[in-house]
Each structure stands twice: as structure tokens, then as C-alpha cells.
Amino acid sequence: MAFSETNIDVFRMVNDLGKEYTYLNPPFVFIAEYTVYLLALATIIYWFTRGRNNRMMVISAVLTFMIAEILGKLAGTFHSNYQPFVELTNVNQLIEKTVGNSFPSDHTILFFSFCMTFWLFKRGYGLLWMIAAILVGISRMWVGVHYPADVAVGALISIISAIAVYYVVPRISFIQKLLKLYEKGEGYILPSKTKSKDL
């Protein structure tokens, strides 16, 4: 019960900020809804820089997301709750969302899977990706579609998955061979005179 009350209290604290600081609602709606397109664009750019490290990073991020999503679905079988705007009154709901089990947050799983992987590979400025993921998690509460526990569990699953993948996948010879085979085929279709450097 205490956990549930804390979960609701933290959600109210974040969500109510949108009622007090209404000028921040558009930026948080954008973060909650549309940064996924920026993430997709960045992933494509990383891949087509044709740097080996960048491509291994993208492969690791995709595998991390797949693993984290499966673990998230398993977690959802042990606990479930509807979105806050369904279960609570006076929620500042800023976006439309299909009603269903919101535990854990798929959006958070996606962002933390990719952003944590980017940070592990890039370090330095890769920290900006983690900040972006945290903002996305906060935004999902701000717009009224997820509880803190939905976000926290989704982030935790993704972070653990990303660390495991980072230390295992790049060392798998089969993955390396597949990447080399792909790059060989790509070389015939899109020949490059100079080898691109990782961003």
C-alpha cells in the first residue's frame, strides 16, 4: 500500500506541474510524443556513417530493445495497472493514449534501451542521450499516461539489458561475421572511396 501511495504521490507531483506551469506543456508533449522520430533519425545516421563501432552500437541497441521488451512483457504478467488518467481523477492528460496495461512503460523501454547503449559506446557526449531518456520518462508522467513505477521499471530493465548486451554481443564472432558480410555486400551497392569515421 505504501508503495502504491508513493507511486501516486510522485505522479501527482510531476503531473500537477503541468497545471501550474502550462507554458511547459507543449515542450513536454513534444518530448513525450515526437522525440522517438529524432531517435530513429539518429539511429539511421549512426548506421550510415558506415563506421564499424557505430554499426555494432546500433546492432546492440536493437538487441537490447528486443530483450528489454520481452522482459517488460514478462514483468507485465506479474503486475498490471491502467494508465493514471483511467485510475485517478483530475489528471492533466495532454495526449491521447489507448487504455491498457501501462506497466512497464514501452516508451521508456525503447528510449533507455537505445540511449543507454549509445552512452556505453560513446561515453562523453553520450551522456546527452541518457539525459534525453530521463526527460522522456518524466514527460510520460507529465502528460498523464504513466506512473513513476511504470517508468522506473522500464528504465531498470533496459539499463540492465543494455549493460549485458554491451559486454557480450560485440564479442560474438557470429555477429561480427554477419556485419562484415553485410558491409561487403553494401560495398558493391554503395562503394565508398573513403572510410567514414564514427561520430
TrEMBL record:
Family matches, as CDD domains: PAP2_BcrC_like
Superkingdom in the source lineage: Bacteria
Sequence intervals crossing the membrane: 28-49, 127-145, 151-169
UniProt keyword terms in alphabetical order: Membrane, Transmembrane, Transmembrane helix
SUPFAM superfamilies: Acid phosphatase/Vanadium-dependent haloperoxidase
Domain (Phosphatidic acid phosphatase type 2/haloperoxidase): residue spans on this chain: 58-166
Record SMART domains: acidPPc
Pfam families, per the entry: PAP2 (PF01569)
Protein name as annotated: Undecaprenyl-diphosphatase
Species of the source: Cytobacillus mangrovibacter
